[in-house]
Structure prediction request, 198 residues.
Amino acid sequence: MQRHVNDPYVKRAQALGLRSRAAFKLLEIDAKDRLFARGQKVVDLGAAPGGWAQVVADKVGPEGRVVAVDLLEMGPIPGVTVISGDFTEESVLREVERAIGAAKIDLVLSDMSPNLSGVAASDQARSISLCGLAAEFALRHLKPSGALLLKAFQGAGFPELLAEIRRRFDRVTVRKPSASRSRSAETYILARGPREIS
Prediction:
C-alpha cells in the first residue's frame, strides 16, 4: 500500500484525472510505436477501471469509436461505450460486435489479468489463457492493417504464446514500459498485421 501511495505514476494519474497509472504504460508505448490515429475503431478488453479507455478516447477523437469491456463495473467514460461482462460469452460478444459495427477494427487492447490466487503456476496459466482469448478475438475482428497490444507475464507458457503470435501476425515486438514496475514479470506484446492462416 505504501509503495502505491508513493508511486510517482499514481500521483501523476491523480493529478491528471486519470483512472489508473496504467495509462502511462499505454502512452509510452504509443509514443514509441504510434498506435493511435483520429477516427480509429478500438476495443479495450479487460478495461476496468478505465485508464486505457480514457487515453484511447482522447487519441481517436469524437470521430473514432471506443468499446471498453470488463467483468467489473466501470463508471461512464466520455466517448467510450462501456460493456460489462465476459467477452468470451456469446451474449456479451454479440453486444461488443453491435457496438463496433460491421466494419473491421483498427486496434485491440488487452490489459487483462486474472484474479490472482497466489498460486504462481495457476495464475500464470490463467494469464496465458486470457492472452490466447484476446489474440483470437483480435484475429477475428481486426483489419488486415490492424494491431493487437497484449499484456502478458514472462514465465511458463510465455515463449509458446509469443511464438504463436509471431506465427499469426506479420510484425511482433515486445515492450516493457518504464511505468511497468521493474520487479514485475509484466510485459506487452505488440502485434501488427493479422495473417489469415488456413
Notes: Residues 43 and 122 are 27 Å apart (CA to CA). The first strand starts at residue 41 and ends at 45. The mean pLDDT is 88.
